[in-house]
Specification:
Shape: globular
Low-confidence stretches: none
CATH class of one domain: Alpha Beta
CATH architecture of one domain: 3-Layer(aba) Sandwich
Distance between the termini: 41 Å
Strand order of the largest sheet: 3-2-1-4-5-6-11
Radius of gyration: 19 Å
Number of helices: 11
Mean pLDDT: 94
Order of helices and strands: EHEEHEHEHEEHEEEHEEHEHHHH
Length: about 300
Amino acid sequence: MKNIWIFGATGYVGRSLTKHLLSVKEKNTVITTLAHRSLPFRELENTNLITGSLEDFDLSWLERFPPDVVFHCARMAGKNDRSRQAAAIKGEQANQRLIQALEPFNIPVIYCSGTLMYGNQNKIIDENTPLKPIAYAKWYERAERPWTKHKYPNVDIRMARPAWILGFDSWFYHFFYLPATQNKCVPYYGDGSQRMSLLHVDDCGRLLHHVYTHGKSSSDYNLYVAPPITQKAFAEMIAEKMGLDVVCINQDALEKMHGQTVTEALTSDIPVRTSHEEWHHAFTPIYPTVSEMLDAVLASKR
């Protein structure tokens, strides 16, 4: 039997990945999912569901269902900077515990990170760009250190860094759609010139699988689909589809409303490409353009 493990199977990205892997699952393959909140049991009924958090789940399950690959989409979150710092410390400890448990299996681990790890850029960048985390990534980086700061000969670690993941939940709803419905204007933040690389959440799950099936051992991968677009152009595209105008929320106003961490994220300029051109061209997205992504997301609400 082939065992595929997914940590964080009910999260924003993990849920998409789980749905995709179930749709392409072959005979003699078992999908084991680890989840600890908002459990959609019907969606997970064809998996070995293990409940628990990354820091305390029973590691003996790894011996019972020896993994052939692990997809790591679990992240400990916080609601403010103080709780994010505490979550980062717990995440670091949990990941250290996990990687020590996985070493004997000699397998690939696909770790879902993010492009905020690169910080602001003045040109389109690839996986060879040094990391300088901003916004939420300043805390996520600490949790990821066990995977990035040390070499493990028996673990094939592939860091996957999605760009802006477009789905109805998360940032799109809270910072674009909801303000648009409340104020009848679609906001863009700062001067709107910051560039966004985008992919639909369904394609994000499929790209994570693509990192496993078509990726190289111990390599990093930027996940994106469409070419970079400025945030102002993105807001104008939403406004056109919703029949609204756009409005600029300057950086000072944004920081007063949401604080420094959110401001750094929403005004970040991180356009990405990949150094793995053949790998990227071998992937066929469901939603290849930003317009098609938005159509799908907006239709999901109706």
